[in-house]
Design a protein that fits this description.
- The chain is of the alpha+beta class.
- The protein folds into two domains: 76 residues, 3-Layer(aba) Sandwich (Glutaredoxin), CATH 3.40.30.10; 122 residues, Glutathione S-transferase Yfyf (Class Pi), Chain A, domain 2, CATH 1.20.1050.
- It has eight helices and four strands.
- The chain has a four-stranded mixed sheet, sandwiched between helices.
- A hairpin with a 4-residue loop joins strand 3 and strand 4.
- The longest helix is centred in the middle third of the chain and has 29 residues.
Length: 215
C-alpha cells in the first residue's frame, strides 16, 4: 500500500490526521506506535528522528510527511477526494489555515499543558503554567463561541481542515476545562462528534480511554 500512517488512536494530533483519511475513505496501512515499547519507538524514530506522531510515509512518491496539518495538506494535494478539506477559494483557504492554527495553538496546546501537568510528580507540578493555560482556554472558548453563533463549521459552508483540528482539541479540552456558558462551543463539539469521520475516530480511541489522566 502506498500510504502508511504511524500514529496512536488516542493521541489528539493523530486523531486530527485520521479524520482527514476517513473523510475521503483514503486507504492507508496502519502502524500503531507504542512509545513505551522500545522496538515500536525505534521504528518511529528511524522514520522521523523527532519521534513524535503522526507521521505519514508515501512509498509511491518516496516522501515522509510529519505534522498533522501538513499531512492533511498533503492528502488534499496528492490524494484528493470529494471532501475538500482545503477550500479551492484562496480567501477561504487562508481562513481555514488560520483557524487550523488557532485550534492547535490556543486550544490544543493549553489543553496538553494541563494534561501534561497531571502526569508530573507532585514536586514538579507547574501551577503557574496551568493557570496561564486555563486563562488562554477561557479566552479561546469565548472567541470560538462568538464565531460559532451562526455557523455549522469553522470556515465556510463545508467541513475543512479547521474542523479536523477543532474536533480532538475541543473534545479533550472539555475534559480539563468545561465550556460553561459557552454553549455555541458545546453545540459545535456535538456536531463534530456526530460527523461520521470523527465518530469513527472516537470509537477507535475508546479502548484507550483509561490513558487520560484524572485530576
Amino acid at each position: 500500500m502506498a500510504l502508511e500512517l504511524y500514529f496512536h488512536p488516542f493521541a489528539s494530533f493523530c486523531q486530527k490526521a485520521l479524520i482527514a483519511f476517513y473523510e475521503n475513505d483514503t486507504p492507508f496501512e496502519r502502524h500503531v506506535v507504542d512509545l513505551g515499547d522500545d522496538a515500536s519507538r525505534a521504528g518511529l524514530n528511524k522514520l522521523w528522528p523527532i519521534t513524535k506522531f503522526p507521521v505519514l510515509r508515501d512509498h509511491a512518491r518516496q516522501q515522509t510527511i510529519p505534522e498533522s496539518s501538513i499531512i492533511v495538506e498533503y492528502l488534499t494535494q496528492y490524494y484528493p477526494g470529494p471532501s475538500r478539506l482545503i477550500p479551492d477559494d484562496p480567501e477561504l483557504a487562508i481562513e481555514t489555515r488560520f483557524w487550523d492554527r488557532y485550534f492547535d495553538l490556543y486550544v490544543h496546546e493549553p489543553m496538553q499543558k494541563i494534561v501534561g501537568d497531571r502526569l508530573r510528580p507532585a514536586e514538579k507540578k507547574d501551577s503557574f503554567g496551568v493557570d496561564a493555560a486555563r486563562r488562554l482556554l477561557t479566552t479561546a472558548y469565548g472567541m470560538i463561541d462568538d464565531r460559532m453563533s451562526a455557523r455549522t463549521w469553522a470556515v465556510g459552508p463545508s467541513f475543512t481542515l479547521a474542523d479536523c483540528a477543532a474536533a480532538p482539541a475541543l473534545f479533550y479540552a472539555a475534559k480539563v476545562q468545561p465550556f460553561g456558558q459557552h454553549t455555541n462551543v458545546a453545540a459545535y463539539l456535538d456536531r463534530l462528534q456526530e460527523r461520521k469521520s470523527y465518530a469513527r475516530v472516537l470509537a477507535e480511541a475508546a479502548p484507550y480511554s483509561s490513558l487520560f489522566p484524572s485530576e
